[in-house]
Amino acid sequence: MALSKRELDELKPWIEKTVKRVLGFSEPTVVTAALNCVGKGMDKKKAADHLKPFLDDSTLRFVDKLFEAVEEGRSSRHSKSSSDRSRKRELKEVFGELLEPGRRSLQ
């Protein structure tokens, strides 16, 4: 599944930091390539094939970490949206009609 621009923007700092740790220096080309892989919804094997020229022996470890970060990001966004819906439901139960759209006062 491809990632949205927002998800890619959230993932970019992690990729930059991880690329620097793996290579020992910052490399924008690798960051862009990694973002393209997850942005286009490539599976691990395709992503590894795409990134291998940049990362050599570190490719599989990097791709595993990359896909773990993507899944963690999705999980945290999913649980946050679920808890937000739950919170809205609780507020509506407490305040009832006061939360109806268009109602501007408590009277």
Characteristic key phrases:
U4/U6 small nuclear ribonucleoprotein Prp3; nucleus; phosphoprotein; spliceosome; elongated; mRNA processing; PWI domain; 107 residues
The shape, in one word, is elongated
Task: Please write the string of helix (H) and strand (E) elements.
Answer: HHHH
CATH architecture of the domain at 5-72: Up-down Bundle
Which fold name fills CATH's third level, the topology of the domain at 5-72?
PWI domain
Task: Just give the CATH class of the domain at 5-72.
Answer: Mainly Alpha
Identify the quaternary structure here: single chain
InterPro entries: PWI_dom, PWI_dom_sf
Protein name: U4/U6 small nuclear ribonucleoprotein Prp3
Keywords: mRNA processing, mRNA splicing, Nucleus, Phosphoprotein, Spliceosome
Subcellular location: Nucleus
Write the layout of secondary structure elements.
Blueprint: H1 5-23, H2 28-39, H3 44-55, H4 59-95
Helix pairs in contact: 1-2, 1-4, 2-3, 3-4
